[in-house]
UniProtKB/TrEMBL annotation:
Its job: Scaffold protein in the commander complex that is essential for endosomal recycling of transmembrane cargos; the commander complex is composed of the CCC subcomplex and the retriever subcomplex. May modulate activity of cullin-RING E3 ubiquitin ligase (CRL) complexes. Down-regulates activation of NF-kappa-B. Inhibits TNF-induced NFKB1 activation.
Family, similarity comment: Belongs to the COMM domain-containing protein 6 family.
Start and end residues of each COMM domain: 120-171
UniProt xrefs under Pfam families: COMM_domain (PF07258)
Annotated protein name in UniProt: COMM domain-containing protein 6
PANTHER family hit by this protein: COMM DOMAIN-CONTAINING PROTEIN 4-8 FAMILY MEMBER (PTHR16231), COMM DOMAIN-CONTAINING PROTEIN 6 (PTHR16231:SF5)
PROSITE patterns in UniProt: COMM (PS51269)
Alphabetized InterPro entries for the sequence: COMM (IPR017920), COMMD4/6/7/8 (IPR047155)
Organism (species): Pardalotus punctatus
GO MF annotation: an example: NF-kappaB binding
Length: 171
């Protein structure tokens, strides 16, 4: 995804960074990558929603980690290190400007320690089953897969998420 950053014009890249920082500051619920992708495509740039979403995730992680570590603008750019040489110049300029202007707000936020926390994958269990019959259907005989994901949310509470799929869905 990082190699796709050069496709995004500077104004759209700046808008993406702005939305990410607003999201990290809890001013907006999230980044609307589908709407932004559509506008970028309308401007004549060939980029798909998956690549833009990956770029948004990378930038979100970058800004939140910088906030968590209370990095200055120069420390952030230095930390990017070798990536700076592969990133287009306009992207580095936008990241530098955005962090310089608005990074302090994230770092100063009382939630700065929790900015980058996301649910943590703990375990996955699955089992294969076959439904032979039910009250409403005499003969089912279709195999299915039951998946149970164990996840620890940011507060540390562990929960199980279960769902069933047909064999083609599982594949």
């Amino acid at each position: 995804a990082a190699d796709k950053i050069h496709l995004i014009p500077q104004d759209f890249f700046a808008e993406l960074c702005e939305q990410i920082i607003q999201h990290l500051n809890h001013k907006i619920p999230g980044v609307n990558t589908s709407e932004l992708c559509q506008r970028i495509q309308t401007s004549g740039v060939e980029i798909n929603i998956c690549d833009l979403a990956k770029i948004a995730n990378i930038l979100s992680f970058l800004f939140s980690a910088a906030a968590r570590n209370n990095l200055s603008t120069e420390e952030l750019i230095t930390t990017l290190g070798s990536a700076v040489s592969t990133l287009p110049k306009h992207a580095v300029q936008v990241i530098r400007h955005m962090w310089n202007e608005q990074g302090k707000a994230i770092a100063a936020s009382e939630d700065a320690r929790n900015v980058a926390t996301v649910g943590q994958f703990v375990d996955m269990k699955w089992k294969l089953g076959v439904a032979m019959s039910s009250d409403t259907c005499r003969s089912l005989k279709y195999p299915y897969v039951t998946v149970t994901l164990t996840v620890a949310d940011p507060s540390g509470q562990i929960t199980d998420k279960s769902f069933e799929m047909t064999i083609p869905q599982f594949k």
